[in-house]
Amino acid sequence: MSKIVSINPFTEEIIKAVEETSSEQIPTIVKKAREALPAWSELGLEKRIEIIEKLVPLLEQNKEKLAKIIHDEMGKPIQKAVGEVEAASSATNFFLKTVPIALKEKVLDENEKEKNVLCYEPIGIVAAITPWNYPLELPLVSIVPALLAGNTVLFKASEHSSLVGIEFFNLLKQLEEEGLPKNVIQLVVGGKETGKEIVKQDIDLVSFTGSLRAGKQIMKDSAEKLHKIILELGGKDPAIVLKDADLEETAKGIVRGATINTGQVCCSIERIYIQKEIFEQLTKKIVEKAKAVSIDKGNDNADIGPLIREFQLKTVEDHIEDAKKKGAHILTGGKRLEGKGYFFLPTVLTNLTNDMKVMKEETFGPIIPLVSFETIEEAIEKANNTKYGLTASIWTKDKEKAKQIAKKLVVGTVVINSSGGYKIGCPWGGAKQSGIGRINYTEGIRELTNIKHLSIKK
Ligand code: NAD
Predict the structure, then answer these.
(1) What domains are there in the chain, each with its CATH number?
(2) Considering only CA atoms, which residue is closest to atom 43 of ligand 1?
(3) What is the predicted pLDDT for the residue at 361?
(4) Is 35 noted as a catalytic residue in this protein?
């Protein structure tokens, strides 16, 4: 049996090696998921809610333990890891409340001859293939609504967050004591090859969150069986700062939006376009704030921790080196921290051109590239000049102007005077190569179902 090794990004030491699910085991796991489906889907939504709601106290009781594993394996400062467990809990509560609304049958029309009804039925077996950057919250927002909708789930955590995945799975397994039928939720441990093996099986939906590279592969592999896919992929998210923006608040918001989770967020700000008149002033403030970002060297309340692994550090270093070679100026940061751990300093860059990796490819690190623009049309053109389309932010006191700009940005979410915009109560997903489909809110829940039209002749 091969093993998946879990590493602590603060110390670079091995925490634990866990057994990988073999490719021979996967068809049996799928068979069990198929067999478990009728008992679960026919139980009815009310009963399923009664069972799944027991997850909330389990998350609460295990908050400290989960946060410590997230911190040790993924590198998030402990207070931020506690925040992730709390967010997972709120997300569960949100789905418990919203699934009945989302899945309620709708009468589309009725006359003396016929009645047409829309029904949202379980889609079948859902494979939740998930990343490491929010190693509890992101699996949870794929798995919990899929279960509530009456599906059975195969859960594969990232190979870089297997321990968090196993811990979360153990909590879900405890729901069997509350009536969750056996094999409704099953764990698959492994990396990319294991993920590929799952996608090849007779499943019904792949709910994937991860990189564009993997998303494209999953789309190709899913074509064979033509199962449905939801792809939540990467971004190269722009911020547009107009000359009337509040400089202090904008500088704070940009630095936070670019460095949160050490920049390892799909919707972190990765390109900043600043109107010429305020470029110098705002740059100065951004540099000050980037220098003040606290790094977790044993400080539970720090702003950021290390990057996940050596490979992520290498990507960030490669983007910075490439930019420097092509003429970029580094105003602060630009290098890793001496000593153990995959730490990289928050980095502000100027003098950038579009051929630089840091302006084109997802960096997924604490980088803050600043570019000036003159007209709003130019800013929109620059912001849209990417294959990605996850989110964008606009910073200005003129909300009406911001709304006009928002309409022209080809993305899934636009945020005015803040960044990210991820909210469980709002649909989430990308335009262009940032993804296919939506998660969260009622739209996201319905994606996990077979939408059936029932036509009743009278
Ligand atoms: P990744 O694509 O390397 O891996 C994600 C998951 O997919 C892992 O479990 C991995 O083992 C599996 N996997 C990889 N290749 C696969 C394949 N061909 N078939 C099946 N499974 C495969 O991504 P990552 O490094 O874990 O996460 C970072 C990426 O995720 C970034 O690009 C980030 O922007 C993106 N992300 C997107 C969102 C979103 O909501 N849009 C949220 C978080 C992260």
Answers:
(1) 3-233+432-457 (3.40.605.10), 237-416 (3.40.309.10)
(2) 266
(3) 98
(4) no
